[in-house]
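Hey, does this match?
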Amino acid sequence: MRFSLIIILSFFAIGLKAQTSLNMNLVYQWQDNTLPASFAHDNTYNEIWGYANNGREYAIIGSTAGTHIFDITDVNNVDTVDFIAGRVQGGQIIHRDYDTYQDYLYIVADEGASSLQIADLSFLPDSAPLVYDDDNFIVKSHNIFIDTTSGYLYTCGGVTDFGPNQLSIYALNPDPTNPQFLLNCELGVPFWNANIGYLHDIYVRNDTAYCNAGPNGLFVVDFSNLLSVQGLGSITTYLHQGYNHSGWLDDSGDHYALADENHGLRVKILDVSNLSNINVIDTIGSNVVDTLSIPHNLIFKNDFLYVSYYFDGLYVFNTSDINNISLAGYYDTSTRPHQDNKYEGNWGVYPFLPSGKILASDMQEGLFVFDTSFPNSVADFGVKNELAFIVYPNPASNQITVTTTLFEKAVAYAIIDLSGKMVKKGQLTKAQTSIGIADISSGFYTFSITQSNGSVVTKKFIKE
């Protein structure tokens, strides 16, 4: 028997609000106006996650009340299959976080006397019963990440049974419903306190952890031997540096996307192929020209980088050519205006469902489910969406020439330096166009063209 929420749910019809978008089609949205907003950021909703099993797909979203699970297999017939009440509820709740291991959902919150909750998802679509709800190990957590190779759960921030937490690790293998303590880094790793300290978030692959350490930068740590944890590399000073909030490693393992949660800062693309020499190779941002834009959470999947951009909404970038990253699509989920010292809008994204549906959460607007028209193959993307043009010579000294034959009307161009500052802009026509660059400093630049459909395509060049 399916679970029914005894609350009034408010479903907003698609197309009710005039949101700006590119290549992303909203197919379902949910919010519940009876739920309270947080006292801090006026956010009713927080993290988003997904799950798929037996040909069915589920959206999982956190709120001030708890965890809401929807069967979204058929977006025209979405079913609320379960609601898991949080140990703590109400306006004090800002953050919940989720991860899955095998068929279990792991749930934490970072406010109040909370707990670690574990729900068994194998019973879906009937229910998702709690099989663990305990604060013996984890009282609060800001973020969790599960390395499925080792079965280790990493918890960042919050409070454990040792007190205020920087990073702790628990084993979920062999029994995912009975976590076992393995390591508290503040107490058990000699170099931790002096070099790394509090972690806001973490990404782990095969025991190699990319540690997002707020103002201290990014640290890469080897946890394969918990008796002898080793630092592998770090970057503590970089362009557009602020509060290192979160990051994600691409499929190749050579590039890491990093979001600093500060107004006006751009997403950094790092070359991590040599951990002894980590460096920024590019910065990217939304197409909203606003000094108050803020990146939040981000995820790589295949050749695409998905970025939750708070006020600006959800952005997707094509990274098939890491030296020429282009905008693939976006959807402005938020109705809130940009404001200083405010953190509102798109919170998170989940792009891993087998059908290709994209899940997103907006702090005020709730759950979004998208179909996308940007293709999953690199070849299709190049043919279908990308304007073909050439910037030469490269490197260049006094001028660059832009050649293209694929647009009929004038288009806008911009030259942007590695810090994200626009140093030159203008209009291009169909004819070959030369642009003087003698007045700009030597360095790496991005040349971008904004097409009539709103999409932005770019090329990199070097000014000698």
Confidence is low (pLDDT under 50) at residues 1-18, 376-386. The chain has two domains: 21-135+237-383, 387-463. The two ends are 69 Å apart (CA to CA). The longest strand covers residues 45-53.
